Amino acid sequence: xxxxxxxxxxxxxxxxxxxxxxxxxxxxxxxxxxxxxxxxxxxxxxxxxxxxxxxxxxxxxxxxxxxxxxxxxxxxxxxxxxxxxxxxxxxxxxxxxxxxxxxxxxxxxxxxxxxxxxxxxxxxxxxxxxxxxxxxxxxxxxxxxxxxxxxxxxxxxxxxxxxxxxxxxxxxxxxxxxxxxxxxxxxxxxxxxxxxxxxxxxxxxxxxxxxx
Amino acid sequence: xxxxxxxxxxxxxxxxxxxxxxxxxxxxxxxxxxxxxxxxxxxxxxxxxxxxxxxxxxxxxxxxxxxxxxxxxxxxxxxxxxxxxxxxxxxxxxxxxxxxxxxxxxxxxxxxxxxxxxxxxxxxxxxxxxxxxxxxxxxxxxxxxxxxxxxxxxxxxxxxxxxxxxxxxxxxxxxxxxxxxxxxxxxxxxxxxxxxxxxxxxxxxxxxxxxxxxxxxxxxxxxxxxxxxxxxxxxxxxxxxxxxxxxxxxxxxxxxxxxxxxxxxxxxxxxxxxxxxxxxxxxxxxxxxxxxxxxxxxxxxx
Lengths: 212, 302
Hints:
The complex is a heterodimer.
Chain A: H1 2-14, H2 18-25, H3 27-37, H4 44-73, H5 81-104, H6 107-116, H7 118-135, H8 139-145, H9 147-152, H10 155-170, H11 176-190, H12 201-211
Helix pairs in contact in A: 3-4, 4-5, 4-10, 4-11, 5-7, 6-7, 7-10, 10-11
Chain B: H1 17-22, H2 55-60, H3 73-77, E1 87-92, E2 98-101, H4 102-108, E3 112-119, E4 124-134, H5 135-142, E5 150-155, E6 175-179, H6 180-183, E7 189-194, E8 197-198, E9 208-210, E10 223-229, H7 236-240, E11 264-267, E12 277-278, H8 286-289
C-alpha cells in the first residue's frame, strides 16, 4: 500500500501547478458556449450561475481535503493548495459577476437582495472572507505576515461553511445535493481536529522517570 | 360552460407549432365576445401580444420533484410514468362520486386552447399554449353539493416509477387545493395538451390543473383524486414550509418570498443575455380575478 502512495506522491511532485490552472480555465468558455447554444437548458443564466458556484465550492472542498489526505492517507498534494484556493476565488468572482450582470441586472434590486435575502447576505460574507485570502496567497505575503498568515488563512473554514449554507438556503425545500456538500465540508473540518493522545502507560512511566 | 374566457390570440383549432414559433407578434385585439359573463371582453392589456415558449422549453424545464429536483430530471425520468389506464377519483361533497375514467372525462368535456402565462415561485416564467377544459365543467358534471367550500387535489404516487419519492423532499403524495370560487373560475382549467399534442409526462400527463394567476406549484400535475370538502385542504408546499408558501399563493410582486424577491421574474427562452421583467399582480390576470379576494389582506393571506 505504501509503495502505491509513494509512487503517487512521486508523480504528484512532478506535475506542475500550472496544469491545474490551465485545466480549470477550460470550463469557463465551454459553459459560455453551452449557454449560448442551448446546452445549459432553457434557463442558461441560472444554470451558468449555479455551475460556477458549484465549481467554486468543489474547489474549496478539495482544498480542505489536502491536509486530512496528508494526515490520514499520507498523500502529499500540499503544493496544489494555493492554486485550488486562487481558482476557487476566481470562480466565486465569476459566479458573483453572473449574478450581478446577467441574473439580476437591476442595481436597486442587487442592493436590496444583498441586505434582505439571507442566502445572498451569507454568500456575500463568504466572498468577503475569501478576498484577504486571495490577496495574501503569495510568497511575499507569507514572508511579511509570518505566523499571522496561518491564522488569517483559517478564514477558509468560515468561507467554506458560509458557502455550504448559501447553497442549502437557495434551493426550494429540502434537497439532497446541498446537504451532501455540507456533510463533506463538516466531515473534512472534523478530520482537522487534533487527535487525542492515546494512553501509553509504560512510555509515560519511563518519561516520568527520566524527568526526575 | 366552456369558452368563458377568450385569449387575445385568434382562436384556431389546430395551430401548427411552427406557425406559432414563426409569429413574431401575436396580434392582440378585441375579439367578439362569444362567451357568457364578463370574460368575453378579452384579457387585460398586460396579456396582449404574448408569445408562447417553444415546446422544447416547456417540456425540458420542469419542477416535478417526484422525478428528481433537477430541472431536467422530469424530462429524463417521467417517461416511466404509465398513464393508461387513468382514472380520476371524484368524491367528497358531490352528487355523483366515483372513479371517472380519463377517456370518459375527455368525451364529456369541451377541449379548447388557452394561452396562459405561467409563473413559478422561483421567479421564472413561461407562456404556455395549453389545451384543456374548464375545471368548472368537470365539477358540474360530478354535481357539487351546497356546503362544499374547497376543492382538494392529489397527484399520483408511484414509487416504482418515480425515483424522487424515495427522498423526503416533500410529503408524498403531492396535494393541492383551491377555494371553490377559484376552482369554478373561467380561467381555471384542467390541461390535457400543449400545442395541440398530448401533454408530456414531465408536464403532468394525462391531466393537470392550471391556475394561471397563482404560483406554478398550485397547478398540480397528474391528478388522480379530486375531493369536494368544506374544510381548507392541506397543500404540499404549505405543509413543507408554511412561512414561505401559503394556501392562496397568488402571484404578488408586493409580497416577497422570505428568501427572495418576487418583484421581477426571468422569462424563459431568452438565452444568456435576457433581461428580467417586472412581475405583474396576479400574473397579469388582475382584472379577471382580483374580485375573488376583495377584502382580503393578501400580504397576510399568501
